[in-house]
């Protein structure tokens, strides 16, 4: 008689355990997914820091996954063990959370001395090779948007020139660059999540 021996799973710790996207059913590390819960009004909302107990669902930072969930919300019934919640505000709620994180990350970069402010400064040869991320205000003129930057991480962000300037305690800024560093890598992750949800 054949016996099947289960291979012991490597102990990777809870922080690296994978989670299932409720929409595409792919297994992902938690940082690739947004945690969702049902609030007191029966609406599905982001719960990224797992602040609330109870059942939750996870979803990729992808527009295709959010759309798939909106089309087939019944998958949540099994996952959450409760009637299907309302999902109407979900895309905006996820985007609002990400935009708030981007603001926080920009301020963090600024406090860490990683921000190069303004179009002129980001073009200087001495500096531009060290810039990892370029952010362009939503109301910047097209000459800024079409400019060639040496980094591939150029993002048009949902902040006006005035609001970008406020983040870094300056006047309006159409373009800001971010030098390499841990806070910039953190900002980059949120900007990439935002771009896959567009
Ligand atoms: Zn997915």
Ligand set:
zinc ion
Rg measurement, Å: 20 Å
Q: Tell me the name of the CATH class of the largest domain.
A: Alpha Beta
Structural class, from helix and strand content? alpha+beta
Low-confidence stretches: 9-13
Major beta sheet, specifics? 4 strands, mixed
Q: What is the chain-wise order of helices and strands? A: EEEEEHHHEHHEHEHEH
Shape, principal axes of CA atoms: elongated
CATH superfamily of the largest domain, called what?
A: Ribosomal protein L30/S12
Alpha carbon gap, first and last residue? 55 Å
The neighbouring-strand order within the major sheet is: 6-9-7-8
* Beta fraction: 15-25%
DSSP summary: helix tally: 8
Helical proportion, percent range: 25-40%
Second CATH tier, the architecture of the largest domain: 2-Layer Sandwich
Q: Mean pLDDT, as a whole number?
A: 88
Number of domains: 2
Kindly identify the CATH topology of the largest domain: 60s Ribosomal Protein L30, Chain: A
Number of strands: 9
């Amino acid at each position: 008689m054949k016996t099947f021996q289960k291979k012991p799973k490597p102990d990777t710790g809870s922080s690296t355990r994978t989670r299932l996207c409720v929409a595409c059913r792919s297994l992902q590390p938690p940082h690739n997914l947004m945690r969702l819960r049902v609030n007191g009004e029966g609406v599905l909302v982001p719960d990224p820091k797992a602040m609330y107990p109870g059942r939750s669902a996870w979803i990729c930072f992808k527009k295709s996954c959010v759309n798939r969930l909106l089309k087939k919300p019944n998958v949540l019934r099994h996952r959450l063990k409760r009637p299907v919640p309302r999902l109407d505000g979900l895309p905006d709620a996820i985007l609002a959370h990400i935009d708030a994180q981007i603001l926080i990350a920009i301020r963090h970069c600024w406090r860490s001395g990683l921000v190069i402010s303004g179009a002129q400064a980001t073009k200087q040869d001495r500096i531009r090779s060290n810039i990892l991320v370029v952010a362009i205000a939503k109301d910047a003129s097209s000459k800024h948007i079409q400019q060639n930057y040496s980094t591939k991480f150029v993002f048009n962000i949902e902040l006006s020139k005035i609001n970008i300037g406020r983040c870094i305690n300056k006047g309006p800024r159409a373009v800001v660059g971010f030098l390499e560093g841990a806070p910039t890598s953190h900002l980059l992750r949120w900007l990439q999540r935002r771009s896959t949800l567009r």
